[in-house]
Write a structure and sequence with these properties.
alpha/beta, Aspartate Aminotransferase, domain 2, 2 domains, binds pyridoxal-5'-phosphate
Length: 383
């Protein structure tokens, strides 16, 4: 021993065996068997770096093995895992929005292998992936045609980019919304290559405001459903029918971003009235865009329904390839849409609707039953 004490790091280096020596130790054999030599070695290296960085008493191989095992288990545990949604918000974006029904889960499992995704089994020809759901969307909304993409933000983006690139889109100032994080209408508009033309005021927009805003560069009138807030008091917005009429007299498409996109009237389930996709199309919208995982109760998706000639143009936009749905999502969406064919059973079969239409007394009873269990489960976390 020298007279002056060694720095802590050097002392630790001396006390901790090398990676190669440790890997040959019997304590590491079971870890190598379960997790593989490469992962065990990489984890061991990380653990040793940590141990060497802090002054330690002598460490035994078994202690190191315990730390490595813990680290390996943490890395290999699924990150994305089920949680209890007790927030009271059923369509919670941070918790994955709509919980899927069993039929959708089964459909996703069936689609995991080889499927007729883009193959028409009847003709033996190449098929279109969106055809698996387009029929359902047309029947349920009365639309001439339909197309599906990654989410509603993508649906709005591709509709704008296809029909109004380098041109002007007129929107009411009261509808320039932000929906959580990065979906802000003016930003989407800019990235889609469109010029936003705001009209009216925050609380009141009249048909005359739209009329005055229409010019040579106008390519679309857009209405955005303000689904996550309300302006109350002295307000006015233009009815969809009037906007559709104005758009059509100028030979422009009228597009509605409906957001939630209810497929059926929800009032019989005791829910507030929401304009349905069908009603919006009947009011004269040329295209309606909406989410798959909001009120519809399905997987994350964006649906565009409406005029066949416009849908056809969107289908040909190269962007479609970048935001198309995968087979797993298509399988889930098809299964969820098919449940709407039986509205009498919908609240029973579709978890989103079942949860939204539960009686308050039922929710209260469950909350009271769960409260002590939740408190008990959370106790160890608090100490
Ligand atoms: C939720 C919503 C969007 C975004 O839809 P995503 O499916 O989350 O991409 C766009 N517009 C409106 C009006 C919405 O409510």
């Amino acid at each position: 021993m020298s007279s002056s004490p060694k720095p802590a790091r050097a002392q630790n280096l001396g006390r901790i065996p090398s990676v190669d020596v440790l890997l040959r130790d019997a304590k590491f054999t079971p870890l190598i068997a379960v997790f593989g030599r490469t992962a065990t070695r990489d984890c061991l290296r990380e653990v040793l770096v940590q141990m060497r960085s802090a002054p330690q008493p002598e460490v035994m191989p078994e202690q190191i093995a315990v730390a490595v095992e813990r680290h390996l288990q943490a890395i290999n545990a699924p990150n994305l895992r089920p949680v209890f949604n007790l927030t009271g918000t059923i369509l919670h974006t941070n918790l994955g929005r709509a919980p899927l029904p069993d039929v959708a889960v089964q459909a996703m499992v069936r689609a995991a292998g080889a499927v007729n995704l883009e193959y028409d089994l009847a003709t033996g020809q190449r098929g279109q992936r969106d055809e698996h759901v387009a029929g359902w969307i047309k029947r349920l909304t009365g639309a001439e045609a339909a197309i599906v993409v990654n989410n509603n933000a993508a649906a709005v983006m591709i509709a704008l980019n296809t029909l109004a690139f380098d041109q002007q889109v007129i929107v009411s100032r009261g509808e320039l919304i932000e929906i959580g994080g990065a979906f802000r209408m003016p930003d989407i508009m800019a990235r889609a290559g469109c010029n936003l033309c705001e009209t009216g005021t925050t609380n009141r927009t009249h048909i005359g405001d739209f009329e005055a805003a229409i010019g040579a560069k106008t390519a679309m009138l857009l209405k955005v459903h303000t689904s996550n807030y309300q302006i109350k008091g002295f307000t006015k917005s233009v009815p969809e029918g009037d906007l559709a009429h104005l758009a059509h007299t100028h030979d422009l498409p009228f597009v509605v971003d409906l957001g939630s996109g209810a497929l059926i009237d929800l009032t019989p389930y005791g829910l507030p009235r929401e304009t349905t996709v069908r009603e919006t199309l009947q009011a004269g919208a040329d295209l309606v865009t909406f989410s798959g995982d909001k009120l519809l109760g399905g997987p994350q998706a964006g649906i565009i329904a409406g005029r066949a000639d416009l849908i056809d143009k969107i289908a040909k936009n190269p962007m479609k390839r970048a935001i198309r749905l995968d087979k797993i999502t298509l399988a889930a969406l098809e299964a969820v849409l098919s449940l709407y064919a039986h509205p009498e059973k919908l609240a029973e079969n579709l978890p989103t609707l079942g949860l939204l239409s539960r009686a308050a007394t039922d929710i209260k009873q469950q909350a009271e039953r769960l409260a002590p269990l939740v408190a008990h489960a959370l106790k160890p976390l608090k100490t």
